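Sequence and structure are kept together here, with a separate record for every protein. An example record follows, reproduced without changes.
>
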Amino acid sequence: MAERRLYVGPSLRRLRRDHGLTQADMAADLEVSPSYIALLERNHRPLSAEMLLRLSQTYKMDMAVLAGDGGSDELARLQGVLKDPMFADIDLPSLETADVTTNFPGITEALLRLYTAYQEEQLALADRGAEVPASSGARGAEDSDPVAESRRFLAARRNSFPILDDAAERLAQVIASHDGMVGYLKAQHNLRVRRLPSNVMVGSIRRLDRHRKEVLLDDGLDAASQTFQLGLQIAYLDMRGEIESVAAEGSFTTESGERLTRRALASYAGAALMMPYTAFAKAAETRRYDIEALARQFGASFEQTAHRLTTLQKPGQERVPFFFIRVDEAGNVSKRLDGAGFPFARHGGGCPLWSVHHAFRTPRQIVTQWLELPDGQRFFSIARTVTAGGGAYGAPRIERAIALGCAAEHADRLIYTQNRAGQGPDDATPIGVTCRICHRTECTARSAPPIGRQILPDDIRRTSAPFGFSDS
């Protein structure tokens, strides 16, 4: 029987970049020519058994890392990109797509980068169009808004970073072999974990003291928060290369925007160490996305678990796509993530008819709601309050509400829709994204007229809605 030829171009290139090597560096390590490495990365040469063994010994890696997928991640990503409606009128056979990823890995990567850049620019254009009138000729404030920059970066990638998930999954196995993060930090970095009172921490909840070789934690943190902070510290120590690699894909106009993005990526990695992708994704399906049950299984908080559910879009291993939002009682949005195509309000407040704004009436109770947007799209939403801070009498606490939701077609996979007679998509609450772009003229909760509608005078007739509009 003929020997199967192994082409590993994308995997080899990823390995080289993860180690911060040029093709010449890798060639020197393996005692081959740089041109041979280039041919391997372009899939113009198969990988020999001898070279596979040499790679494994040189970079202390499992051979399965290279021999396993043969570019399946890139294939799944490209197939996902080609599902965009803009390509709907083009015949794109799956075999041709597979041929591109196998035989032209460089072109595949270029297309993926270009599509991601396109998504970022679409989001940036939407921001500018919403903020600045077209006639003004001015550039929007969003151009220099670091929070908006970071949110665009995450949204363009649907808050999914397989490179971080893969690295965290491997590292989590090593951590488990040391009986947890405390043991790992001691064994791998000679760092001791100490928990100190808030007055000693002087405004910090975590601090790395390299001089005393200690990781210091505020002892007022609950167990889930302490675990997350340790995971975050490990991410900064051992996943910095992967975080820098992902952040380098962005184009930032402000230094703060870049720093916020790196912080978000580090938090992503820390959560991935607590809730490794494969195990968490399997548990999510088994438990029908029961957030409280998943939180207990993985020792995480309700918010950490809900946040992690938005990241389960690894190509080829996708789960239910969710969107996530966190608001305070004044309606300020402090976190917004979208993996489900929900059209969040980018400026101004959200819709007051959405239950996330009502969750404060029933603290720590889950509130469910079907939603219908003006264009007919339907979503299912889960909302609940969460508490930050506290930990001691008199310590300040912050109450916020979070909402996690998905498109209606995925809702039957969630435990929250089971055994709910008389409650379904047909009972959806009609909401808008924000009053300025919602044209539901009869809405009594409206706070501002929609753009482009002429307001009627009320000297003869006053409508029940806050504003009356002409038909034209």
Q: What stands out?
A: The first strand starts at residue 192 and ends at 196.
